[in-house]
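User: quick one
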Amino acid sequence: MKSRNQAPAAALFLLPYATVFLVFVLAPILYGFFISLHKWYILAPRPEFIGLRNYRMVLGDDLFRLAMLRTAYFVVMVVPVGNALSLLLAVGLNQNFRGTAFYKVAYYLPVVMTVSVVAILWRWLYSTEFGLLNHYLGQASGVMHGVLPKVFPATWKTEWLNNPRTAMPSIALLSVWWGAGGNMLIYLAGLKNIPRELLEAAEIDGASPIKRFWAVTWPLLRPTTLFCVVMSVIASSQVFGQTYILTGGGPYYSTLTVILYMYQQGFGQYQLGYAAAVGYVLFAAVLVFTLIQFRLLRVKQ
Amino acid sequence: MKKRARLRRPFSASAFAAQAGMMIGALVMLAPVVWMFSTSLKPESAVLDANPKWIPNPITLEHFHRLFTQAQDFPVLRWLANSVFVACSVTLLVLIVTSTAAYAFSRLKFPGRDILFMVVIATMMIPGQVNLIPVFLIVQKLGWFNSYFGLIVPCIAGAFGVFLLRQFFLSIPVELEEAAFVDGAGLFTIYWRVILPLAKPALATLAIFTFIGAWNDFVWPMIVTSDISMRTLPVGVMIFQGRYVTEYGATMATAAICSVPTIIAFLIFQKRITEGIAMTGIKG
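Assistant: Done. Structure below.
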């Protein structure tokens, strides 16, 4: 376009977004770091500057370390299982069976629901006495008891969310159910981008469907996989709503995740400086982990 | 096309098994949602049946009726109104501020443009939850705690829309604008009359994503409000459930009210959503 000085016009066009961006995105990043350098109680009259002491305390905090481990446990369950499921569903959709449109809707539907609805729905499904899961699994166990009485008890139930050993896997399961549809669509787009000629050539050469998948599809899908894995690591390391609503971090801290701990410190104990430091340490950890993933998954390209 | 038809396999056992697997998967994925709607339509006495029934019989609207008429200490209608107002405002404002910014970033020349854009994009890498505390303090300082401003304005600052629209604007041929420019149109006219109409598909995609995201937001409304009448539905659902732990029918009815708008939006704009995810997923 004609080279006129467009800077004043640009400033006008940018003004609305720039204002909110500055106040609610950019400033908070710096302000958050500033807060983390202070002893900052919500109710105290004046924050006290303490340098990096919050960070030192966070790193030496047993509960924080526990929360990091529990979060890592959650990520390690959700990311591989969730991505494998998403990819499997995408491969299924890509076969273009009859009814694919319906399948796509069914698999994606949970994604458009909010976390509180998902959580209270699953709290009931997981309920020891009234839950559908115990009901149907108990029935199945009763039936199998007739066949293999030693392996399957006649009546069976478990305390999904009240048992420290099963609480986190239960939360991981509902999170996989909730989120699998999102990555599925991205994998599906990736699959559609794979040149049909390559797959047909492999088929003519007599490669089985499984062989075709590993030899042609999987390597070509690598950028998509990298993207999905990285994004789900970032998202799942911030898990909050599920644990906040369903377990509050319990039983015995078995579902205490980092963002939940940050929330408890910030809005429960009013230690905002400390909570901000927790957030930054998590961010740093996730950032490092993301860079490692890029290294690992990209090198082979 | 002919070649493809030749290569299509005939009916086989493995295809049948795959098809069956897809169907079972669909039923498992849908089951909790169906259970929610089914329970919300059951009379309270039938909710905890020893043999779970998936199809309510008789069907009753008693839970919805009660929620909308009696529950004064749990203003579900007010929560619904809040959610509608907040989600619609966020969507509208996001469309306005990100499209003007994207226009500047994609079409206008000014010093520091690319660096500025990089800064905006870089913030997409920062997880939202980490910013929670500073944003909360800023909102509090502005006096926006417990207000619609607090619920709405911080949620329009995300960089995703700017990124999405700029990419789309760049794909629009410049010649169209040059023609308008020769005809004497100003920059705003070009933005409003040429760019925006051509960018409708991208704007629609952004609008749907923003609406569903804003509607479903849970953490921010929970933190920035404390007054029961300022809550949005997702937060309300949790409060309601905390109070009426054993009233599954009423709880599921609240959850259903909260889920219906996004489910309908998804069903209507399904194609746009799936294409949008594919597009941004690949580009991201």
